[in-house]
Structure formats: structure tokens, C-alpha cells
Amino acid sequence: MLRKNFLGLLLCAILFCMGFVINGNLNLYFNLSGLMIVFGGTFAATLLSFKIDQLRIVSKVLWSAYNRQMKQETEIINILIDLSIRSRMAGILSLQQHENETTILFLRRALGCLVDGYKTEQIRDILNTEMYFFRLRREDSERILRTIADFFPAFGIIGSVVGLITMLGGIGDTNVILKAIPIALTSTLYGLIFSNFFFLPFAANIKERTNHELLMQKIIMEGVIAIESEMNPVILKTKLESFLTPSARATELVSYQKLKERFQIEQE
């Protein structure tokens, strides 16, 4: 996770916890029975819904999302321009020595197609297929996390119902009622917290990273196809920078004076 994100998360978590502490005893919000109902029910429903292999993949995707920093679009563009220059100077086969140096799997796959002499249509078809199934796999992980997030509030309500039933069964016995009230209230609290504070943000993070990686893959695909067609590196740079926001582009806009000179516009 980026340092700024981590500091922001830490600050917000402190503020969140202070809201519990200021107006009451923190121990009042801990109830073992409520935790067991919410977590036991949620994870049982999760195991009934998904295979262990799917859950293992989701855990790996989450670990990678919060522990591996992604390359930025400008870095990818610089790599592709460097490869384009190398290709024009020493030929496409010279890229073979760089095929195993890159840490980006998609770029390595694209370079492999390029070095093996695939045609433009074949390269585009292979990389589009790669992107399509990458997006499907990520959407599947996101769907699993959102489903788990839906389970938490549902079992929180179940815990509340259990507490209410216990209260009704203990009418006339104050001790039973006092023991049942925390179960009824904290179960819903746990379900809402773990759904909205953890699993929905996990799913949103995966979606955001997936969109970012798909953008980089699109840049790589267009860059590699341009290298295959021996596009001029300067033109390639201009083309790839079209994927960036205006503030991220290194190229300066052409002045109005140069536009007038180029198209012979006379001042009225």
C-alpha cells in the first residue's frame, strides 16, 4: 500500500475507534457470541458458495493489491519507446535479450509474440484475448468479495434475531435479558463494520487496480504493434501519450503562433 494511503487509513481508523470510546466503554462493543454467529455463519456460507481454490486466488489477489506497487503509465511508455529505438537500430530480434528482463508478464508475452514473428492481426488477437480473460478473472474475485460483504450484514441480523428470541424467552428474568441485549445489538454492528469497512473496500480496490492494469495492457498492446510496424519513436510517443491525462503528458502543446505559421493563417 502506498505510504499516503496507509497514513490516511491509520488516521481514519483512529477517528473511527475514538467515536466508540468517547461516549462509552470499549468493552461494551465486544461480544463473543455475536462474533461467533457473524463470522461462523459468514464463512460457512462462503464455503458453501465458492471453492477453496477460488478463495485462495482471491487471497493472493488481495495480497498483491496491497503489497505490490504497480508501474505507472509513463514508465510503461518510456519502456516501449526504448524498445522501439532498440528495434529500429538493431532489428526486432534484438528484443529477444530483453524479453526475460521485464517484470511485467503481459509485456513479456507481447514481446514474445513480436520476437516470434507474429503478424499484427495475430498479436492483437492474442493480447485482446489475454486482456479479456484477465478482466474476467478479476471480476470473479471482485464478485466473491462483494458476495462475502453481503453475507456479513445478513448474519448480523440473524445474530440480532437470536438475541431477541433469547430476550423473549427470558421475560421475567432480568439476568437473561441483560445477557441477550448485547448479542442482539453487537451482531448487527459487526456485520455492518466488516462488510463496509473491509470487504466492500477490498472489492473496490481490486476493481480500481484492474482498470489501471487494463489501461497499461492496452498501452502495451498498441506500443508493441507500433514497434512491429516500425513506427517512428517520436510518433509512437505522441500516440501512447494519448492514453494519459493532459497533466501527465510530457509533450507541450503547440503554440498558436506555430499553428498560424504552419497553416498560413493570416491575422485579421
Give an account of the 3D structure.
The chain has 268 residues and is mainly α. The protein has one domain (32-244). Helices cover 76% and strands 0% of the residues. The chain is built from nine helices and no strands. The protein has helices at residues 3-22, 32-49, 52-67, 73-90, 105-115, 120-169, 174-228, 233-240, 256-262. The chain is elongated. The termini are far apart.
Overall number of strands:
0
Mean pLDDT across residues: 83
How do the helices and strands follow one another from N- to C-terminus? HHHHHHHHH
Assign a percent range to the helix content: over 70%
Principal-axis shape: elongated
Kindly provide the radius of gyration, computed on alpha-carbon positions and rounded to a whole number of angstroms. 28 Å
Terminal CA distance? 56 Å
Structural category is: mainly alpha
Strand content: under 5%
Main sheet attributes: strand count, strand direction, barrel closure: none
Note the total helix count.
Answer: 9
Which parts are unreliable, with pLDDT below 50 for 5 consecutive residues or more? none
Number of domains: 1
Topology:
Elements: H1 3-22, H2 32-49, H3 52-67, H4 73-90, H5 105-115, H6 120-169, H7 174-228, H8 233-240, H9 256-262
Give a quick set of tags describing it.
76% helix, mainly alpha, elongated, 268 residues, 0% strand
Concise description?
This protein has 268 residues and is an all-alpha fold.
